[in-house]
Design goal:
The complex is a heterodimer. Chain A is an all-alpha fold. Helices cover about 85% and strands about 0% of the residues of chain A. Chain A is built from 10 helices and no strands. In chain A, helix 1 packs antiparallel against helix 4, helix 4 packs across helix 9 and helix 9 crosses helix 10. By secondary structure, chain B is an alpha/beta fold. In chain B, the strands form 2 sheets. Chain B has a 6-stranded mixed beta sheet, with helices on both faces. In chain B, strands 2-1-4-5 form a 4-stranded antiparallel beta sheet, with helices on one face. The two termini of chain B are about 30 Å apart. Classes of the chains: A mainly alpha, B alpha/beta. Chains A and B meet through helix 1 and helix 5 of A and helix 3 of B.
Chain lengths: ~280, ~230
C-alpha cells in the first residue's frame, strides 16, 4: 500500500470512534423518533376513532386520509434533521481539527507527520480524502437508514393508514435531504464540488494560520472571506449593480470562480506545506 | 556533512538565528550548547525543514532539504511525537509502515535494552520512558545522521545513564550526531565537537579533544570563558 493510502487509512482510523457515535446517534434519533411518533399517531387515531365512532382503520382513512412517510417525518422534524445537522456541524468542526489535532497536546504528532519520507502534499490529500469519505459515508448511511425507517413505518401502521412512498420521492420533497442527496449526477458534481472547494479554502486558511501564526489568523480569515465574496460576486452583480446576468451566465461564472478557487487553494496549500509551515 | 550556511531565522521582530554557519561531520558527535533561547532547537528544526529559514540555507551532504532528507537524517525532538492513544507497539508499526529504512531488529533490541512494554499506551509513559521510546524511534532508522533535542532534559538519573550509554555503543557508530543539551557535564567526555551558541550566533566552534590537548581546557572551561566574558 502506498504512503498516501496508508495516510488515508490512518486519518479514517483516528476519527472512527466519533464517526461511529455520529452514525449511531443519527440512527437512534431518527428511528427512535419515528417509533415514538408512530406510536403517538396510532394512539391519536384510536382516540379519534372512538370519539367519532369509526369501527375500523379503513373508515378512519376514508374520513381523515392516510399519513405518508413524509408527513410522519414532518411531525417529528427535529428528531429527523437535528442529527443530520449535528453531523454536518461535527464534520465542519473536524475540517479544522484534522489539522490542529496534530499540533495540540504534549506530544505534537505534526513533527512526525512532516518528517515522513513522502511528499507533504500526501498529508494534504489524505486529510482531504478522509473528509470527503466521512461526508459521503454519512450520506450513504442515511440512504441505508431510509429503507429501515420506511420498514418501521409500514410495520407499525395498519395498511389502511400507510401510503407507499419511494425513497427518491421522500428525498425530493425534503428540504434538507434534497440538497444532501442530489437526484442527478450533475447536481452531485456541483454540490459536492462546491463542498470540496469549501474544504480546500478552509484547509488553506488553517495552513496560512499555521505558517504565519498571529499574522496568519488575519490572513486565514481574509482568505476565507475573500473566497466567500468571490462566490457571492455573481449574485452581488445581479442585486447590487443591477446588471442582470442570465441564469446560465451566473451558473457558468460560479463554476469558473469555484474552479479557480479550488486551484488557488491547492496551489497555496502546497506552497505553505513545503516552504512555510512551522512546527 | 550537515552544513548551516549563514542561517537566519526571525520570528516577527525577534531574530533567533543570525547568519549562523556551522558544520557537523559524519562519524562525529557535535553538541550545540547554549542557554534557553540561544537558537539550538530552532537550528535543529531548520535542518529538518520543520521551520523555514528567513535567510541562508541548510545543506545535507551538499544537497538542499527535500523529502529525501527524512531517509537520511533522523530527528529526536524534545517531545515524543506520537498520538497519545497509540501503544508502543502501534508506534513501532507506524514507523515500519512509513520508513523504508526502519530497522525492526534494532528496534526490538532497543525495546529490550530500554525495558519498554509494547502494550503501554504513549499517554501512560513516564517522561523517562517517553524519552527512551523517542530515542528508539530515531535510532532504529538506518540514517546517516541523528539529531537529538535535549535528550536528557527532565528525566531521572538512571534513564539518563541508559540514554548516555547509547552514545558509546555501536548504535551511533559511523553516524553523524548533533545534539543539544543543558547537561553537558555528564556527556562532555562523549562529544567530539562543541558549538557554543548565544543569541542565535556561533560564539565558538571547536573540537573538544584538540582543545584539551592544545589549551588544556574542558568544554565547561571554554563555556565559562565565552558566556561570562
Amino acid at each position: 500500500m502506498n504512503r498516501y493510502l496508508k495516510l488515508v487509512v490512518m486519518e479514517l482510523h483516528r476519527f472512527w470512534k466519533i464517526y461511529a457515535a455520529l452514525m449511531l446517534l443519527t440512527f437512534l434519533s431518527q428511528f427512535g423518533g419515528l417509533f415514538l411518533t408512530l406510536r403517538s399517531y396510532l394512539t391519536e387515531v384510536k382516540g379519534r376513532m372512538y370519539a367519532e365512532s369509526l369501527y375500523d382503520y379503513a373508515a378512519y382513512a376514508e374520513k381523515h386520509g392516510p399519513e405518508s412517510f413524509y408527513t410522519m417525518t414532518s411531525r417529528m422534524e427535529p428528531w429527523f434533521t437535528a442529527p443530520v445537522l449535528l453531523c454536518i456541524a461535527a464534520l465542519l468542526f473536524y475540517v479544522f481539527m484534522i489539522w490542529y489535532r496534530d499540533w495540540f497536546g504534549k506530544n505534537p504528532f505534526v513533527y512526525r507527520m512532516l518528517m515522513l519520507p513522502t511528499s507533504r502534499m500526501n498529508l494534504y490529500w489524505a486529510k482531504l480524502t478522509a473528509i470527503m469519505v466521512f461526508v459521503l459515508g454519512l450520506v450513504g448511511w442515511q440512504l441505508v437508514l431510509f429503507p429501515l425507517h420506511m420498514a418501521l413505518y409500514r410495520s407499525m401502521l395498519p395498511a389502511e393508514l400507510a401510503v407507499t412512498q419511494s425513497v427518491e420521492s421522500f428525498i425530493h420533497h425534503h428540504s434538507v435531504f434534497q440538497t444532501l442527496i442530489p437526484q442527478t449526477f450533475t447536481e452531485f458534481v456541483l454540490y459536492y464540488g462546491a463542498g470540496l472547494m469549501t474544504v480546500t479554502v478552509l484547509f488553506t486558511s488553517v495552513l496560512i494560520e499555521r505558517s504565519y501564526r498571529f499574522k496568519g489568523i488575519a490572513g486565514g480569515l481574509v482568505y476565507a472571506a475573500a473566497s466567500l465574496f468571490a462566490m457571492l460576486a455573481p449574485q452581488l452583480v445581479n442585486d447590487g449593480i443591477g446588471f442582470e446576468l442570465y441564469p446560465w451566465e451566473t451558473f457558468l461564472l460560479l463554476v469558473v470562480i469555484g474552479a479557480v478557487l479550488l486551484a488557488l487553494s491547492l496551489g497555496i496549500s502546497r506552497y505553505l506545506l513545503i516552504r512555510k509551515i512551522t512546527v | 556533512m550537515i552544513e548551516a550556511v549563514r542561517a537566519t531565522k526571525k520570528f516577527g521582530r525577534k531574530t533567533v538565528l543570525r547568519n549562523l554557519s556551522m558544520t557537523a561531520e559524519k562519524g562525529q558527535i557535535t553538541c550545540l550548547i547554549g542557554i534557553n533561547g540561544a537558537g539550538k532547537s530552532t537550528l535543529l528544526k531548520a535542518i529538518m525543514g520543520l521551520t523555514p529559514l528567513s535567510g541562508g540555507q541548510i545543506r545535507i551532504d551538499g544537497a538542499p532539504i527535500g523529502k529525501a532528507v527524512y531517509e537520511k537524517v533522523a530527528f529526536v525532538p524534545d517531545t515524543l511525537p506520537m498520538p497519545p492513544s497509540m501503544t508502543v507497539a502501534d508506534s513501532l508499526q507506524f514507523m515500519g509502515d512509513y520508513y523504508s529504512n526502519w530497522n525492526a531488529k534494532r528496534a526490538s533490541d532497543l525495546l529490550v535494552f530500554f525495558r519498554l512494554n509494547v502494550s503501554d499506551r504513549i499517554s501512560s509513559l513516564s517522561k523517562g520512558n517517553a524519552a527512551k521510546l523517542n530515542l528508539l524511534h530515531g535510532l532504529s532508522l538506518d540514517t546517516d545522521y541523528v539529531l537529538m533535542d535535549e535528550p536528557f532534559s527532565g528525566i531521572d538519573l538512571f534513564s539518563r545513564e541508559q540514554i548516555a550509554s547509547v552514545f558509546t555503543s555501536d548504535l551511533i557508530e559511523g553516524r553523524g550526531v548533533i545534539l543539544t543539551t543543558h547537561e553537558i557535564g555528564e556527556i562532555e567526555h562523549l562529544i567530539d565537537k562543541a558549538v557554543l551558541l548565544d543569541q542565535g550566533e556561533v560564539r565558538r566552534e571547536f573540537m573538544c579533544e584538540e582543545m584539551r590537548m592544545a589549551e588544556g581546557k574542558s568544554v565547561i572551561d571554554v563555556m565559562r570563558e565565552v558566556y561570562r566574558a
